[in-house]
What does this fold into?
Amino acid sequence: MWEHGKDKEKINLNKLKNYKALAYAGPIAQFNKVKEEYQELLNEVEIKNDDFRYVKNRDNFVAEALDLVTATINLLLLCKVTDLDFNKHIEKLNAYRNGKYKK
It folds into this structure.
């Protein structure tokens, strides 16, 4: 469950696990899908001189970002991501927050 904003809007990312059937047969094919979705997300942003300027259309941007998240989660599921993998990632993020990216 992910909470965001002052209203504590809840988004249940676990729902994406129900769409593993949309994944391609193997990790390499799914990785290519992730690359495709990333490119589609980039197409929704105005870029000038290698800098992001603005989002062209918020609804399209959000849709493409969610497609990218879904494709990435499916890739992780195909690669048999484990709780240990996830916990290592959380530890890394905590290290970033407490060190490299501390404000």
Remarks:
- The longest strand covers residues 51-55.
